[in-house]
Write a structure and sequence with these properties.
Blueprint lengths: L4 H8 L2 H66 L5 H29 L10 H23 L2 H5 L2 H14 L5 H19 L11 H4 L4 H32 L1
């Protein structure tokens, strides 16, 4: 497919290349700037959770030890044959049960805080790719604005041909044959402007001229930006599939 400024304009006018790219260009740097603060908050949360886990672990160990001592004392008293006051015996059993219940609660809190660590890594790859794609769109568009002919930037082909016909009619030309010739001439003019600076390969050395042409770099940046958008869509698709089926 031949390179032309009209094709580059058509790619640049895609909504996915304009709205999404400029939004990413604005918001991704903001998010990247806030990312270290978010990581600091997550790290602080994890440290608090770790400290709480240690406290609950120590409390649970102490409770288990006290329960064991209470039960051991009560068992030794029973084995010694000494008479034990029923109220004291009942209090000892109730204390043992309450201690065990409390120990179970502490164990539950221990598991809760132990698994409550949040994870946050570096900036997601999809945001980085979206930002690079947006940056390439801006560069490609800047090259297009600086080098594409004015009539290509202002009009599409059918708009330019229609404008030429309307101007001819305004100047009093009504003959269909003349209007057809004017339309064909406008079409040729637009095509020539669209092909301005486009490469023509007649010998191998012409391929090296390609890297000196603005039209090549504008096309290249736009195509790589489209590839970045495709990668973003693919990554998001995989994430949705994993969330639904796995």
């Amino acid at each position: 497919m031949k390179l032309s400024w009209s094709r580059i304009r058509a790619v640049g006018e895609l909504k996915i290349m304009t709205r999404a790219s400029y939004l990413a260009l604005i918001f991704v740097p903001i998010i990247a700037g806030l990312w270290p603060s978010a990581r600091a908050v997550i790290i602080h949360h994890n440290q608090l959770a770790l400290e709480a886990t240690g406290i609950f672990d120590k409390a649970e160990t102490n409770l288990q030890r006290e329960i064991f001592q209470i039960e051991s004392i009560y068992k030794r008293i029973q084995e010694s044959g000494l008479l034990v006051n029923e109220e004291l015996a009942e209090s000892s059993k109730r204390m043992s049960m309450e201690s065990r219940y409390f120990a179970e609660k502490v164990q539950g809190f221990l598991h809760k805080y132990d698994s409550n660590n949040l994870s946050i890594g570096s900036l997601p790859l999809v945001w980085f790719v979206a930002y690079i794609g947006s940056l390439l769109v801006v560069i490609g568009n800047a090259i297009y604005q600086a080098n594409a002919p004015d009539i290509v930037q202002k009009y599409r082909k059918f708009e330019f041909v229609q404008k030429s016909r309307e101007e001819a009619i305004r100047y009093g030309i009504s003959d269909k044959h003349e209007l057809k010739m004017i339309a064909e001439q406008a079409d040729s003019t637009y095509e020539a402007a669209s092909d301005y600076g486009a490469p023509y390969f007649t010998q191998p050395s012409d391929y090296f001229r390609l890297f000196k042409l603005p039209i090549f770099y504008s096309s290249f940046f736009y195509l790589v930006a489209l590839a970045c958008i495709a990668v973003v869509i693919l990554i998001q698709f995989i994430a949705v599939v994993n969330a639904v089926f796995f």
